[in-house]
Amino acid sequence: MSSQLPIGVFDSGVGGLTVVKEIMSQLPDERIIYFGDTARVPYGNKSQETVIKYSRQIARFLLSEKVKAIVIACNTASAFALETLTAELDVPIIGVVRPGARAAAEVTKNGRIGVIGTEGTVRSGLYGTYIRELRPDVEVYGKACPLFVPLVEEGLHDDEVTELMAKRYLAPLLAKSVDTIVLGCTHYPLLRGVVSKVAGDGVTLVNPAYETARDLRELLAEKDLLANSGTQREHQFFVSDGAEQFRAFANSILPCEMIETDAVNVKVFA
Ligand code: DGL
Predict the structure, then answer these.
(1) Which of 37, 63, 128, 164 has the highest CB neighbour number within 10 Å of its CB?
(2) CA distance linking residue 133 with residue 37, whole number of Å
(3) What pairs with residue 139 in β-bridges?
(4) How does pLDDT run across 63-109, given as a tens digit for each residue?
(5) Distance 184 CA to ligand 1 centre (A)
(6) Is residue 146 reached through a cis peptide bond, with omega within 30 degrees of 0 on the bond before it?
(7) If you average pLDDT over residues 203-210, what whole number do you get?
(8) Best substitution site from 9, 10, 12, 20 to test ligand 1's pocket, by max atoms within 8 Å of Cβ?
(9) CATH assignment of 98-208, given 3.40.50.1860, 1.10.10.10, 3.40.190.10, 3.40.50.1910?
């Protein structure tokens, strides 16, 4: 396996771009091939079986593009499909849940952590499992926030409707006096401003993307797969629908200009 091959990153849609942004910043020599399953978003309300099926299709697509490693930049897919894909695939693969759990376990002072995410991620209870592996004394409270994803996709990052929903979603966590909230969905870092305003200064927000990029670096170093410095970076972005809309969104949050996005039908790889 050549270290000059790209890294495959995928999400159900645009949310994984928050992870891409962090990988670009921490691993500037790496080339990225991104797949956003915009035709089938959201994953958050789907069954584990369906999320595994979709994730498997996308992994096959990324492998056909000859990636050297895969990052599941989606909490729901990480919670539901990482174990299966790890067992099935020959490339190194990481998700975002374990790195985020570790960061939360390190950050909390009062031992009360809130996890916000999709219904699937919260239902899986995986953040709690991983956090308690590190800190058995900690209490973890999950809260699904299903309307946050469409609010992000509609670009309502800083809107009164979003703030109203944040107040409603965070109330039960704040009532438990959490001092840490994990942004357990890759869309949510885009709502950081509103969530932080509602949660207040006493609450630290954890974005698992930062720790995921750090773990990716360690994993690549361990496998001797870090790209040489000064490598030519030409990232590629694929989606299953709405390429133009995706491109506009990506250009609003990524540090590089995306010239074109290819639409690919992942069912071809089923
Ligand atoms: N980005 C996905 C995640 O991190 C949420 C969006 C969805 O429901 O597909 O879980």
Answers:
(1) 37
(2) 32
(3) 112
(4) 999 999 999 999 999 999 999 999 999 999 999 999 999 999 999 99
(5) 9
(6) no
(7) 97
(8) 12
(9) 3.40.50.1860
